[in-house]
Amino acid sequence: MQSSTKKNIWQVIMASSAGTLIEWYDFYIFGSLSYIIADKFFPNDNHTLAYIATLATFAVGFIVRPFGSIVFGRLGDIVGRKYTFLLTLLLMGGTTFAIGLVPGYATIGYAAPIIILILRLLQGLALGGEYGGAATYVAEHAPTARRGYFTSFIQTTATLGLFLSLGVILLTNMSMSSDSFNAWGWRVPFWVSIVLVITSYYIRTKLEESPLFKEMKAAGKTSKNPIRESFGKKENLRMVLLALFGATMGQGVVWYTGQFYALSFLQNTMHVSLSQSSIIIAVALLLGTPLFVYFGHLSDKIGRKKIILGGMILAAIAYYPIYRAMDQTVMLDRKQEVTSLFKIESHSESNGEGALVRHTTRIYTYSDSTQLRKIKTETISGDQTILTAEKDEIKVSRSATVWLIFLVFLQVLFVTMAYGPICAFLVEMFPTRIRYTSMSLPYHIGNGVFGGLMPIIAVSLVSKTGNHYIGLAYPIAVAVICVIIGGIFIKEKPIRDLSIED
């Protein structure tokens, strides 16, 4: 079986990773466009509350992931790995495409956020079943001595999915006017997903079932009740809890802080423009992505645990100085304004309802080339002028852009350490007959609940206290707790063959 797995491993990785990449892309475009979704699907009389409501809707998709892991994990342990992640792919892609079709709050009122919430629930359920299937499938094909290396390619798909979503959003945004993008162009990335899903589904249909699962099924040793075996037996439940509190919850908060919260901080706290903040995150991710594979490979040599926990503790130590350094790049009271470069730009357009919409932008330029754009939108109907939107947008200088890329890259480095080896680490903790179910639940609670709630907890804390950095208290605390529990109670075992006798 080992020679067969070596022969087919790259085909397996490509097919599994392609589907997982697209599912993460589907999931992340919602988060990346959350500032627009807040305006389109929620009452816009209070933008901060609308944005928090959007993040809450985003978080719901994460919270239901553990339920998806139970439903689809059970299916994967009974029916098979391949057919389960075909189903999750179609469910994920269909709901994403549907989000791009939902009319806004201005058209259908409160039905809009309700429909979006339901679609997010379905997305979360599908993603809850996806990762465990892909991870188990690749691990059960991989050579023992290189399991960390080969499974680490799956780990790149989450980051590449975010990178792809940012790329599509950026290209769409750059291909049309700002007004067109805000009016309807933001829907394009959701529509594009259906093409990607169809392509991935075709690739996955060419796969065969996991050799270990086929061997186990032929021997009549598949689990009759994976849920009961996973969580009803004391020893296995103990391993599930250790996987959660000693590894995945810390990995989850490091992952979402280093990518999602970094993007949210750039856009909503620092007010860096959409295009520039997207470029900063995308370049940092592009530079950091190969490190997933490096740390996966390194874990085959020196062990998984020390790399995973090392990434968490480094993150906990470094977050505050990193975010303080990011924030200082846009502290305008420390910069010298060049008053001779001040200018005002204004243009008007009809909104299709007989009213005139006037956009006025005041542009302040500073000596280091930083620009502050104060944008005001007014709707003029008859003799009445109504202020409909007002926001600040900052364009940082080239040198500051490079500095911000470096600071985000450091966070991505911590992510790759914590996340690169985690797939192999989890697979090796649980027996073959209940592996899909057992590893999926702690992974999705750690990432879906502890990690997925990170953005809304952080933004809520900042909104309530006015302290730009108070949101970091949550990921720092979770990471430290995880390092303590994992360091004390998880005993790393020698890497061994996976077997149906486990």
Automatic annotation (TrEMBL):
Main location: membrane
Species of the source: Chitinophaga caeni
GO molecular function: transmembrane transporter activity
Domain of life: Bacteria
Phosphoprotein is among the record's keywords: no
Coiled-coil region: none
Domain Major facilitator superfamily (MFS) profile: 12-494
Membrane topology note: Multi-pass membrane protein
InterPro entries: MFS_dom, MFS_sugar_transport-like, MFS_trans_sf, Sugar_transporter_CS
Taxonomic lineage of the native organism: Bacteria, Pseudomonadati, Bacteroidota, Chitinophagia, Chitinophagales
Protein name: MFS transporter
PROSITE patterns with a match to the protein in the record: MFS (PS50850), SUGAR_TRANSPORT_2 (PS00217)
Pfam hit, one: Sugar_tr
Compartments reported by the entry: Cell membrane
Keywords, in A-Z order: Cell membrane, Membrane, Transmembrane, Transmembrane helix, Transport
